[in-house]
């Protein structure tokens, strides 16, 4: 009898294993809308207690009734999380059934693949590729492009800024653009590359970019957070912060966009290293923050425009984020982003919301745009590029060109306005 049982088990072993394999779940991104305070509390708990990654909002603190939460749920917590949602009757739908497939598509090294017709700028690139690109761009454009080393990251990676300059007009002003403060927002470094390529290709061909470059130099930092970006390519696609170690905890990383000296670590940031919005031990505690702040301090008399590129949610933001107060030039900034948003809607049929950070998304201190504004750079902006949640941080490469062209139109609109307002024609 015993032998028979063993035989039976053995005969069906492959079937039993297969069943187990079929019900094995995958990583997923869920869209969840809590309807009651109890459901809000459960969700806050889920997103902190279980191995998940909150996409939207950025911190459990902001989860509220009747507002969508986008949550990345890895396979190993999937069952527990779904059980909890079911038990408390919390409405949810699957936003992305197979994020891993999207991740695989985005990281596939298709540079040698003849079937891929997309160009270099319509793909995402590893950090190594980007360093290589920086070098090559300088070599190919020795008269217009300079590479400036402004510092290094926590893990000692270089922070390179490209300086685009088409002439040596005296008293020339400048625009600063940084990308990749947040590691998982891959469309952001892609935009910096796109912008450089566009500027180099269309100077003297497109009237707007010609006018801008004739009147100002552009400083571009393609990857402000190289350690984090590298980590999203090798280990965890959903990583946001930098990779610095913190005293007294195993939790890694500081949110670099909470580490600048603008109402530092007040409401909207956290002093807890294990959170996604950890402000760091003190303002500019991180080498990445310090490098950018030092560079801008030493160039503040020439830099007129500060621009920081993030994703996702399609917003054109300006200071303040760290207080509900309005800046002295609030209406001027509002007019500029409104015009930019209108142009995007007209040309690309896509909606961007706009306004001061605190009134448009959330109260958030320690951001680079607020700090730059307080330094004296009165035209200071943060753009949140595509999309509005369909793919979130996993925006497919096929969407890069439209996302970047929209952002480019906004940059042009703002830069041209600043040239017109502040400079006598050359
Ligand atoms: C946050 C702050 Cl602190 C700021 N000054 N401007 C924009 C934002 C929004 C980004 C963030 O860091 O949360 C969006 Se990813
Ligand atoms: Zn961001
Ligand atoms: Zn964002």
Automatic annotation (TrEMBL):
* Cofactor entry: Zn(2+)
**Protein name in the entry:** Peptidase M14 domain-containing protein
- Would you kindly state one Gene Ontology biological process term found in this protein's UniProt entry? proteolysis
Q: Which domain of life is it from?
A: Eukaryota
Key word Transmembrane present: no
Q: Where is the signal peptide?
A: 1-19
| UniProt keyword annotation of Protease present | yes
Instruction: Write out the similarity annotation.
Output: Belongs to the peptidase M14 family.
Q: Where is the active site?
A: 384 (proton donor/acceptor)
Print the keywords alphabetically.
Answer: Carboxypeptidase, Disulfide bond, Hydrolase, Metal-binding, Metalloprotease, Protease, Signal, Zinc
Q: Which PROSITE patterns match?
A: CARBOXYPEPT_ZN_1 (PS00132), CARBOXYPEPT_ZN_2 (PS00133), PEPTIDASE_M14 (PS52035)
Gene Ontology MF: a single term: metallopeptidase activity
Which SUPFAM superfamilies does the record match to this protein?
A: Protease propeptides/inhibitors, Zn-dependent exopeptidases
Q: Name one Pfam family in it.
A: Propep_M14
Give the lineage: Eukaryota, Metazoa, Chordata, Craniata, Vertebrata
InterPro entries on file:
CARBOXYPEPT_ZN_1 (IPR057246), CARBOXYPEPT_ZN_2 (IPR057247), CPB2 (IPR033849), M14A-like_propep (IPR036990), M14A_act_pep (IPR003146), Peptidase_M14 (IPR000834)
Residue ranges of every copy of the Peptidase M14 domain listed in the record: 123-418
């Amino acid at each position: 009898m015993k032998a028979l049982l063993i035989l039976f088990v053995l005969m069906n072993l492959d079937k039993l294993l297969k069943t187990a394999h079929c019900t094995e779940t995958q990583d997923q991104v869920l869209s969840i809308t809590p309807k009651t305070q109890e459901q809000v509390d459960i969700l806050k708990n889920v997103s902190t207690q279980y191995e998940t990654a909150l996409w939207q909002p950025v911190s459990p603190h902001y989860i509220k009734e009747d507002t969508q939460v986008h949550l990345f749920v890895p396979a190993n917590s999937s069952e527990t999380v779904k059980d909890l949602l079911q038990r408390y009757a919390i409405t949810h739908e699957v936003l992305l059934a197979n994020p891993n497939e999207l991740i695989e598509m985005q990281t596939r090294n298709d540079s040698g693949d003849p079937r891929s017709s997309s160009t270099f700028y319509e793909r995402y690139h590893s950090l190594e590729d980007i360093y290589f690109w920086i070098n090559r761009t300088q070599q190919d454009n020795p008269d217009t492009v300079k590479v400036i080393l402004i510092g290094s990251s926590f893990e000692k990676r270089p922070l390179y800024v490209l300086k685009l300059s088409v002439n040596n007009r005296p008293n020339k002003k400048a625009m600063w653009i940084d990308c990749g403060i947040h590691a998982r927002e891959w469309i952001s470094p892609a935009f910096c590359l796109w912008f450089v390529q566009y500027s180099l290709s269309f100077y003297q061909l497109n009237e707007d970019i010609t006018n801008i470059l004739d009147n100002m130099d552009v400083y571009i930092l393609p990857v402000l957070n190289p350690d984090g970006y590298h980590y999203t390519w090798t280990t965890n696609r959903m990583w946001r912060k930098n990779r610095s170690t913190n005293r007294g905890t195993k939790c890694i990383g500081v949110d670099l966009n909470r580490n600048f000296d603008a109402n530092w670590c007040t409401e909207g940031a956290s002093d807890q290293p294990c959170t996604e919005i950890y402000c760091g031990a003190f303002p500019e505690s991180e080498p990445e923050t310090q490098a950018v702040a030092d560079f801008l301090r030493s160039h503040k008399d020439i830099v007129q425009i500060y621009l920081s590129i993030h994703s996702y949610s399609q917003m054109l933001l300006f200071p303040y984020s760290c207080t509900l107060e309005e800046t002295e030039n609030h209406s001027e900034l509002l007019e500029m982003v409104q015009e930019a948003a209108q142009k995007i809607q007209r040309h690309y049929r896509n909606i961007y919301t706009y306004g001061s950070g605190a009134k448009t998304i959330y109260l958030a201190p320690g951001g680079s745009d607020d700090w730059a504004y307080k330094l004296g750079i009165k035209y200071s902006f943060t753009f949140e590029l595509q999309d509005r949640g369909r793919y979130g941080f996993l925006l497919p490469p096929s969407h890069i060109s439209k996302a970047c062209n929209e952002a480019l139109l906004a940059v042009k609109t703002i830069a041209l306005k600043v040239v017109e307002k502040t400079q006598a024609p050359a």
